[in-house]
Amino acid sequence: MIFIGSGSLLRHALLIAEQSSIKIDLVCAERDNGLVQFCHRSNFSVISTNNVNDDLLVGLKKSSDGIAIMVNSSSIIRDELLTTSVAFFNIHNGLVQKYRGLADVCVFASICKIENEYGSTLQRLLPRHQVDAGPTLDQRSFKVEMDDDFETVFSNSIDNYKNQLESTLPKLSSFVESGGKYLHGTETYSYRHVTALIGNAPEDRRSLACSLGRYSGLLPRLSSLTGNSRKQSQ
């Protein structure tokens, strides 16, 4: 299996793969030197890349099971890769029928919009599809309380994501022939949506959404945008 992405979530996926006796053919680390070092220590074949589409095409030859999965990845895979014999999957931190796009902005939007549920989605990536708009194969969700702030919901979303990894990764090959369902919504959230989300949210939701807590330093772009919006509203 080929793994694409970065951060602690991808490390978690690699540990699950090891525990499940899944052969790790290649790790494609996106701008993550710490992940590269982790792979070297673990004797995983790894490439460090700033452009997955250019660097992975040759790496696909290493695939032993014809499967690649994106975990915490910021890349948009081109059709050149999606039309190969390798099946690409992605786990998105969001329920795609409502929240497609950047994970932190999706969580932020869900709080602004007073959702009582959030979750993650396993999708198959197919040619000529928009971001997070492939067939849905598995979803996991959790309850969101009315007074949950961003820090709480984002933390719970990470735990939920890990649970989905643990349950679906060992049986990913069974999804290759599955058709899935097209559940994706029309909006794809990015940082350009943040100011409008804040402006349209009720005051109490705005406060909860902007309470990033320990993620302020880990999500600098969102932290900057929420800070600027608060200053403008004062």
Keywords:
Rossmann fold, globular, alpha/beta
Briefly say what this structure is.
The protein has helices at 7-19, 33-41, 52-59, 79-82, 103-112, 150-168, 194-200, 203-209, 220-233, and strands at residues 2-5, 26-30, 46-49, 67-71, 87-92, 100-101, 117-125, 136-143, 188-189.
Question: Your description of this structure?
Answer:
The chain is α/β, with parallel strands linked by helices and 234 residues long. The chain has one domain (2-100, 116-187): Rossmann fold. It contains 9 helices and 9 strands. It has helices spanning 7-19, 33-41, 52-59, 79-82, 103-112, 150-168, 194-200, 203-209, 220-233; strands at 2-5, 26-30, 46-49, 67-71, 87-92, 100-101, 117-125, 136-143, 188-189. Strands 3-2-1-4-5-7-8 form a 7-stranded mixed sheet, with helices on both faces. A two-stranded parallel sheet has the order 6-9. The termini are far apart. The model has no long low-confidence stretch (mean pLDDT 93).
